[in-house]
Specification:
Number of helices: 16
Strand content: 15-25%
Number of domains: 2
Low-confidence stretches: 1-6
Distance between the termini: 56 Å
Length: 455
């Protein structure tokens, strides 16, 4: 006779119903390396065939599992080989056509987002890379589901300042071409240092060069669950006890997520890739990383001690997750996107969190300056300086960092952008008025740090 643990059943139900636990994304990573051709129309035909071959049942099977286990699967996504590599084979490098093909296939398959309109240019750009980067603003403006990313730095190669300058202009143009939607083009574009090829989260997901033909990566999120677990502790419990509680909670979340991921991979007849345990917030009340800080004892996100609290949270999440699975990957930790977190929105609106404080927090979080809205008239050279700072943090600390900045067209400090859904809303944050121009326009490459020589 099967013996059921009533407390465990009730705990799982509460995680889902009361504390917003969900499978944030199931992302099917599909290699397009066999889709190359000199004819761009042939490339597009091969892409449509490949996506249909592997992803035709992704939404159907994910919905079946959602019903079977009563665990929400919020997004169904696809990531593909960096498109700069695929389109470079064409005589006519029509990256817009390829982007629209990817977007159309995603729409037909019922996919929420498709990532991989990407380039890896940390040491320099090929002709294909340049053509893709130049096409990003129009590609994002003319599609609905397409997401784009460009890696401009690594701890091994250093920082490509020429690429950063180009990406600053690209971010501005992406926002301007989608001005009627509060610059949403820039919200689907991220600039990376040390990007990873098995990340299931957007906008930075792509299928890395060393990945298999196809694999199912899963992203699990539960900031509300972690916050509830901390709240249940004695308010005077020391930080060691607090950290252990977070680890235990992350362990449970990871195990549940891997169960769903492995079941879905088996149904799709593809390998299970990784589980990315990232506390990815939403604008929903109670589903906030910022509110975890308050549960820890800070008056609000942004108070002195916030960076230390985030460091402990990020570390405990990783430790708990890695004990539950041998295949924890992606980014795994805690995200701090301003527009997507109700507590972060409140903290920035009240001035508790400044741009400089957010930058400091990126030293210990999973990604970086994420979904931050700034005045639309911010110079490209200032945006380049922001990117360079964040890339330096990633390069020196051997971690993934990223910038997803939205220079909101025709808006200034005191206004806000509103997207709704997972992208939420954000106040326009003030920007340092000092010029970065003479520094960032020097160009070239900032050399890799001495610890890159570790062979």
């Amino acid at each position: 006779m099967t013996v059921f643990d009533e407390n465990l059943i009730l705990e799982t139900i509460n995680m889902i119903k009361l504390y917003n636990f969900d499978i944030r994304t199931v992302t099917l990573a599909i290699s397009l390396r066999d889709c190359l051709s000199e004819d761009v129309n042939a490339v597009c035909d091969k892409i449509k065939y490949k996506l249909d071959k592997y992803a035709s049942n992704l939404v159907k099977y994910a919905n079946e599992l959602e019903n079977d286990y009563s665990i929400p699967i919020v997004n169904k996504r696809i990531s593909v080989t960096p498109i700069s590599l695929v389109g470079e084979s064409c005589k006519e490098k029509d990256y817009i056509k390829i982007a629209q093909t990817l977007d159309g296939s995603a729409k037909n398959l019922g996919i929420d987002f498709i990532g991989g309109f990407s380039a890896l240019v940390e040491k320099g750009c090929t002709q294909g890379d340049i053509a893709l980067i130049n096409s990003i603003p129009e590609a994002l403006a003319s599609t609905e589901r397409m997401c784009s990313s460009v890696n401009v730095a690594t701890s091994k190669a250093g920082i490509n300042m020429d690429a950063i300058l180009k990406m600053a202009d690209t971010i501005k143009k992406s926002a301007e071409l989608t001005a009627e939607k509060d610059g949403i083009g820039a919200a689907k574009l991220v600039v990376f240092c040390n990007s990873v090829g098995d990340n299931p989260f957007m906008a930075g997901a792509y299928c890395g060069y060393g990945e298999p033909e196809c694999a199912l990566n899963i992203g699990v999120s539960g900031p509300g669950v972690v916050r509830a677990a901390i709240t249940d502790l004695d308010r005077k419990a020391d930080l060691g006890v607090l950290s252990n509680k977070i680890k235990q909670t992350a362990y449970k979340i990871t195990g549940t997520g891997e169960l769903i991921g492995r079941r879905l991979a088996k149904m799709l007849n593809v390998p299970f890739g990784v589980i990315d345990l990232s506390l990815a917030p939403t604008p929903a009340i109670g589903d906030s990383v910022a509110q975890i800080f308050q549960a820890m004892g800070l008056e609000h996100a942004g108070a002195h001690g916030t960076t230390a609290a985030l460091a402990m949270l990020n570390d405990a999440v990783k430790k708990g997750g890695i004990m539950a699975s041998s295949y924890v990957g992606g980014l795994s930790g805690a995200f701090i996107p301003v527009s997507e977190d109700a507590g972060m929105i409140e903290a920035t609106s009240k001035g508790h969190l400044t741009f400089d404080k957010l930058e400091a927090m990126t030293c210990v979080c999973s990604v970086g300056l994420d979904m931050i809205a700034i005045p639309g008239d911010t110079p490209s050279t200032t945006i380049a300086g922001m990117i360079a700072d964040e890339m330096a943090i990633g390069m020196i600390n051997k971690k993934t960092t990223a910038v997803r900045i939205i220079p909101a067209p025709n808006k200034t400090y005191g206004d806000k952008i509103v997207y709704g859904g997972l992208l939420g809303e954000a106040p326009i944050m003030p920007v340092n008025k000092l010029s970065s121009e003479d520094f960032v326009t020097r160009g070239g490459r900032i050399p890799a740090p001495i610890h890159s020589l570790n062979n």
